[in-house]
Amino acid sequence: MSSSQGLIDPFDAAMAEIARLKLEPYVAELESKGFTVIPPEVASPGGLASRLLEAILDVSEKRTGTRPEIIEGRAHENYKGRFADYYSDQGDSPIGEYLQCLLFEGRVFEEALMNPVLLAITTYLLGYSSVLSSMSCFIKGRNKSTFALHTDTLIPSPLPAHALICNATYLLTDFTKENGATAFVPGSHKFCRTPSAQESIVGGKDGHPDAVAAEGAAGSLMIFHGNTWHGAFNRTQPGLRVSMPVLMARPNMRTEEDLFGAVPQEMIDRNPGRFKVLTQQAVSYGFSSEEGAAHRSAKAAECLIAYFEEMGLKREERIAFPHHG
After folding, report:
1. CB contact at 8 A, 214 and 37
2. Where would a tag sit more exposed on the chain, N or C end, judged by fewer CB atoms within 10 A?
3. What are the structural domains, with CATH classification, of the chain?
4. What's the pLDDT score for residue 64?
5. Average pLDDT over every residue of 160-170
6. pLDDT beyond 90 at 213
7. Which residues lie across from 36 on neighbouring strands?
């Protein structure tokens, strides 16, 4: 785990964690295809996925007044929502009900972020300074609209080969093509560009010929490179497809959620030091005054010192670990 200068190498440290968790086959698939689906017995320790599903149903009921029906899903059939007609002319939403900002909705969501399997592979892609960009949920019933192929790296092409963004999605119900699974173009992360309008079509006679359904049992964790072309097939079966994307980013990227200074102290106190880094408390940029810059820098330094101490890094070893503070 040491470099030629005698320092701990972050990549070696990340690979050691991957080896400890026996995740090498999934990393190899991720490198080859740009996505991987990790099965429940590896991805969801302690019944995590089932607890996440119940918590999400609770959140939906709290926010809308109606608890989603997993088996029948009648209330979500041809769901309109915020994105109806935005991506297609079918009259319904390709993603269904969209729940955002879940981290503060219960301790199980903190557990989902700190899942060692999720952190090991997202660290492999983004480094130890990666942060949470957003935690959300899609609840999709039977519908007509497909979701066009796109990338999660929202910058103009050409895209860098290394990941700036990665997506770790908990599959909380079974994913099959008929159930409206995510569509991927294998190997597209290596194209380093976004798809054209014609290339972005999913399904039907004009759909991308290489698009495949990412299938997996409830409780799986689907992880993909931010450059990978992905969308979704429409759901043709009754019931609901429930998924919870945990979008991760390098700290220099604009995140979807602004978490700096918004995380309650009791959440910080009950989690490891890395939780503060993941929730953007160590990101010093984003200030609007000199006083604000000093405040953010001091808070970032405090977070990073605690993080490095937790990792057991000596002062001379810390420089090898990329950070943003």
Report:
1. yes
2. N
3. 10-257 (2.60.120.620), 263-325 (no CATH)
4. 95
5. 98
6. yes
7. 223
User: What are the E-state strand segments in 165-314?
Assistant: 165-171, 182-184, 212-213, 221-225, 230-232, 241-249
Residue 298's nearest CA partner among 315, 281, 274, 314 is: 281
CA distance 95 to 114: 26
Q: What tokens were used for 78? A: 């041809």
pLDDT score of 324: 44
* CB within 8 Å of 76: residues ≥ 6 apart: 68, 69, 96, 97, 139, 140, 141, 142, 240
At 178-212, the pLDDT tens digits run: 999 999 999 999 999 999 999 999 999 999 999 99
Q: pLDDT tens digits for 229-240?
A: 999 999 999 999
Q: Are the CB atoms for 260 and 286 separated by under 8 Å? A: yes
Q: List all residues 6 or more positions away from 185 whose beta carbon is below 8 Å from its beta carbon.
A: 149, 195, 208, 210, 211, 212, 228, 229, 230
Secondary structure (DSSP) of 191-216: T-SPPPTTTT--SSTTS-TT-EE--B
User: Using CA atoms, how far apart are residues 210 and 223, in angstroms rounded to an integer?
Assistant: 19
Please name the residue that has the structure tokens 């269904």.
Answer: 96
What CA–CA distances, in Å, run from 112 to 12, 58, 95, 197?
A: 25, 16, 21, 35
What are the pLDDT digits (tens) for 124-144? 999 999 999 999 999 999 999
Q: Is residue 316 classed as helix, strand or coil in its secondary structure?
A: helix
Helix and strand element counts for the chain (H, E) = 9, 11
pLDDT at residue 196 in the model: 97
Contact 119, 267 (CB under 8 A): no
Measured CA distances, 205 to 92, 125, 133, 180 (Å): 20, 35, 35, 17
Secondary structure letter of residue 74 according to DSSP: G
- Given a cut of 90, whether residue 69 has pLDDT beyond it is yes
For residue 195, say if its preceding peptide bond is cis, omega within 30 degrees of 0: no
pTM > 0.85 = yes
